[in-house]
């Protein structure tokens, strides 16, 4: 398609927006959805070791770290941020997987 468009005299910008961008947009969206859980985990780990956001700002990592002091008496204070971290990551992974299946040109026949 690109060679045919070039033979018809279309500009490179028009070819990029008409043929290339629609074919890579699904890949880019899926890649972003799969990268978000990693970024959330990195931020949580950095906050847990006091290299992330500062204490007035809430973070799942800092909430888990702060709750470890009272783990014996209030285990739900650790459980809730940990479960939130797991469910947020799982939601983005499942969304990315669903979008990958939706954008897959081989599965459009089904």
TrEMBL record:
<protein>
    <submittedName>
        <fullName>ABC transporter permease</fullName>
    </submittedName>
</protein>
<keyword id="KW-0472">Membrane</keyword>
<dbReference type="InterPro" id="IPR035906">
    <property type="entry name" value="MetI-like_sf"/>
</dbReference>
<keyword id="KW-1133">Transmembrane helix</keyword>
<dbReference type="InterPro" id="IPR000515">
    <property type="entry name" value="MetI-like"/>
</dbReference>
<dbReference type="InterPro" id="IPR050366">
    <property type="entry name" value="BP-dependent_transpt_permease"/>
</dbReference>
<keyword id="KW-0812">Transmembrane</keyword>
<dbReference type="GO" id="GO:0055085">
    <property type="term" value="P:transmembrane transport"/>
</dbReference>
<dbReference type="GO" id="GO:0015833">
    <property type="term" value="P:peptide transport"/>
</dbReference>
<feature type="domain" description="ABC transmembrane type-1">
    <location>
        <begin position="1"/>
        <end position="96"/>
    </location>
</feature>
<feature type="transmembrane region" description="Helical">
    <location>
        <begin position="20"/>
        <end position="42"/>
    </location>
</feature>
<dbReference type="GO" id="GO:0005886">
    <property type="term" value="C:plasma membrane"/>
</dbReference>
<keyword id="KW-0653">Protein transport</keyword>
<keyword id="KW-0813">Transport</keyword>
<dbReference type="GO" id="GO:0015031">
    <property type="term" value="P:protein transport"/>
</dbReference>
<comment type="similarity">
    <text>Belongs to the binding-protein-dependent transport system permease family. OppBC subfamily.</text>
</comment>
<feature type="transmembrane region" description="Helical">
    <location>
        <begin position="78"/>
        <end position="96"/>
    </location>
</feature>
<keyword id="KW-0571">Peptide transport</keyword>
<dbReference type="Pfam" id="PF00528">
    <property type="entry name" value="BPD_transp_1"/>
</dbReference>
<keyword id="KW-1003">Cell membrane</keyword>
């Amino acid at each position: 398609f690109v060679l045919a468009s070039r033979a018809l005299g279309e500009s490179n910008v028009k070819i990029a927006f008409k043929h290339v961008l629609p074919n890579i947009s699904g890949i880019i969206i899926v890649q972003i959805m799969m990268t978000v859980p990693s970024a959330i985990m990195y931020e949580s780990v950095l906050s847990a070791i006091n290299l992330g956001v500062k204490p007035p700002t809430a973070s799942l990592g800092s909430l888990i770290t702060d709750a470890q002091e009272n783990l014996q008496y209030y285990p739900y204070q650790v459980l809730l941020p940990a479960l939130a971290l797991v469910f947020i990551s799982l939601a983005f992974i499942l969304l990315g997987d669903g979008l990958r299946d939706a954008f897959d040109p081989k599965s459009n026949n089904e």
